[in-house]
C-alpha cells in the first residue's frame, strides 16, 4: 500500500496480552490494509476472542499499541470509532422477544443523531442486509422463533447495516451449515475486495476468528496463529499456514495437500 492510500485500517505494534499470570501471546506486529482479510487461528482457550476484543478497542493490551485508521483508540470519539469498526460477538444473547428488522436496525445507531430515528434509507439498508444473508421476508419474525443459524445471520445483517470499514468477526460461521459458512465468508471477502464507494476513503477489511484451518487457507490474506502457550506467528497466509507450525499449535500432526490449486490440511 502506498503512502497516498493512507494508513492501514488496523495496526498492532509490539502487541502482547496477559490474563492473570498467563501470557496469551508474546509481542508481535501487524498491519491490515484495505482489501485484506486476516484470520485468527489457534486451539480452544488460546486467546483468539481476547485478542479480537483488544483489536476492537474493548480492552487494553498488556504491551504495545493498537491503531485504528492510523490513530490509537484514545484518539477516536466513540461514535466515530463505531462507524469505522464493527464487532460480531461470538454469542448472541436473546433474552426478550424482538422483531428481526428491529434487531438489524440496531446496526444503524452509530449513524443516527442523539435523538434521531431510523428513516427510509436506514430501513432500506437493513432490508438489503437481510437479503444479503438470505433472510429476505424474515423482517417481522420474532427472534425467539429462529434457529441458531438464522439468529447468527440476523447478527451478521446488523453488522452489515452498521456499514463499518473494518469488520471484526468472532466465529462468523458459528451455527451455520456448510452452504451458509461459504456464503458468509464469500460475502465478507467480496465486501473487502470491492472498490471503495468514495475514492478518498479506504476500502474495507476483515479480521475473522476461525476454527477451520481450510477456510482460513481459502479466505485469509494474513493469519495470526496462537499456540495456547503464549507463542504467536503472524504474517502472510502461506508463511503461517505450514504443516509444522499448525501441528505444533494444535497438538496434532497435520499434512498439507494441494487439490486443483487449493491448499488443504488434513490430520495425519
Name a few traits of the molecule.
268 residues; alpha/beta; 31% helix; 26% strand
What does this structure look like?
The protein has 268 residues and is of the alpha/beta class. The protein has a single domain, classed as P-loop containing nucleotide triphosphate hydrolases (Rossmann fold, 3-Layer(aba) Sandwich), CATH 3.40.50.300. The chain is built from nine helices and twelve strands. The protein has a six-stranded mixed β-sheet, sandwiched between helices. The mean pLDDT is 93.
Number of strands: 12
| Number of helical segments with 4 or more residues | 9
Oligomer: single chain
- CATH superfamily heading: P-loop containing nucleotide triphosphate hydrolases
Helix content: 25-40%
Strand content: 25-35%
Order of strands in the sheet with the most strands? 6-7-8-3-9-10
CATH architecture: 3-Layer(aba) Sandwich
Gap between N and C termini: 39 Å
CATH topology: Rossmann fold
Shape: globular
Low-confidence stretches: none
Element string (H = helix, E = strand): EEEHEEHEHHHEHEHEEHHEE
CATH class: Alpha Beta
Structural domains: how many: 1
Calculate the mean pLDDT score and round it. Answer: 93
* Structural class based on helices, strands and sheet pairing: alpha/beta
Largest sheet: 6 strands, mixed
Amino acid at each position: 500500500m502506498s503512502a497516498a492510500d493512507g494508513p492501514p485500517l488496523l495496526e498492532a505494534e509490539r502487541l502482547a496480552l496477559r490474563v492473570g499470570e498467563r501470557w496469551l501471546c508474546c509481542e508481535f506486529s501487524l498491519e491490515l490494509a484495505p482489501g485484506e482479510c486476516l484470520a485468527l487461528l489457534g486451539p480452544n482457550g488460546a486467546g483468539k476472542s481476547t485478542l479480537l476484543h483488544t483489536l476492537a478497542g474493548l480492552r487494553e493490551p498488556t504491551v504495545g499499541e493498537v491503531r485504528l485508521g492510523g490513530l490509537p483508540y484514545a484518539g477516536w470519539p466513540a461514535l466515530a470509532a463505531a462507524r469505522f469498526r464493527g464487532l460480531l460477538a461470538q454469542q448472541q444473547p436473546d433474552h426478550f422477544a424482538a422483531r428481526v428488522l428491529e434487531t438489524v436496525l440496531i446496526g444503524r445507531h452509530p449513524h443516527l443523531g442523539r435523538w434521531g430515528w431510523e428513516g427510509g434509507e436506514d430501513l432500506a439498508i437493513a432490508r438489503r442486509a437481510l437479503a444479503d444473508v438470505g433472510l429476505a421476508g424474515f423482517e417481522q419474525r420474532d427472534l425467539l422463533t429462529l434457529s441458531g443459524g438464522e439468529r447468527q445471520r440476523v447478527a451478521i445483517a446488523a453488522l452489515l447495516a452498521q456499514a463499518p470499514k473494518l469488520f471484526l468477526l468472532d466465529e462468523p460461521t458459528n451455527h451455520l451449515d456448510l452452504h451458509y459458512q461459504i456464503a458468509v465468508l464469500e460475502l465478507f471477502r467480496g465486501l473487502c475486495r470491492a472498490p471503495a464507494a468514495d475514492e478518498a476513503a479506504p476500502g474495507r477489511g476483515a479480521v475473522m476468528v476461525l476454527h477451520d484451518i481450510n477456510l482460513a487457507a481459502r479466505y485469509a490474506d494474513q493469519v495470526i496463529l496462537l499456540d495456547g502457550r503464549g507463542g504467536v506467528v503472524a504474517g502472510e497466509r502461506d508463511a503461517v499456514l505450514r504443516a509444522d507450525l499448525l501441528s505444533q499449535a494444535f497438538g496434532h500432526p497435520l499434512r498439507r495437500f494441494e487439490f486443483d490449486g487449493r491448499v488443504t490440511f488434513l490430520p495425519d
